[in-house]
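Hey,

Quick one before I head out. I ran the complex with calcium ion overnight. Inputs first:
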Amino acid sequence: MFLSFLLNHANIIMNIIMEAFVCCFPCTRLWNRHYNRVSGLSEFQKHKLRHDFETFWDLNKTKLLEGSDFELAKKQISALNNWKDTDPRYRRMDRLFQDLWHQLVFNADIDGDNKISSYEWLKMWEKNLDREEIKENSDTFMKEMKKRLNAISIQPKDTAGGEADAADKMSKGLPMWMTDYILYKFELFDRNNDGVITMDEYVHVLKDFRIPQEQSRKAFLKFSEEDSRKVDYEYFCELTIEFYTSNCRLSKGNFITGQIDF
Ligand SMILES: [Ca+2]
Ligand SMILES: [Ca+2]
């Protein structure tokens, strides 16, 4: 009888014991916080998000995201693209980075040290991808995405008039600031500003983020279906949203950051 009670309530009992242990030994709180507490994301999702954090965000490789990473990003990206500070794309990047940094600190900086650790980054995504959170945000997110699609100056040539449909087809569940971030990433890759990302453009940009050319070529071939599918803004949005939201290893969006092994 007693054994049966223990078996039926094993989870609850373990949680009570763990909580009591953490109260008695505060150092275990730290251990839990850093290694064991992002349970809302799969190991696969964490792996993808850590790669994104290390490759595209923590540019000075301090394992922390700070204001200085954005300053470095601005320098690196404007040099890569020859964007002068009068270029609308530079101005948009500048505004975006300021906004991104404030949003990240507001949403992710749990310990208030004005730095985002990879743990805090994962916790933010765990919250973003929470089903209730998705439900609340999705309508507003889609409205913003449509606005970006309508306002963008580099309209995909073959999809005139299909902007609203394009937004409707997209997955949901991303924070609002991602609408600007996705446009910025597209403009970063689309070096000749013709509305399509080619393999050469993609490989060239990722080389600047220390991704080996052979690897980024393989990644491009995967998400472009052996270079048979045009990577225009609509498809890029689809892939990027898939990268952040999908828990399926077969999703083509998994490869959009140049990672091929998971
Ligand atoms: Ca850093
Ligand atoms: Ca922090």
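The radius of gyration is 21 Å.

Talk tomorrow,
K.
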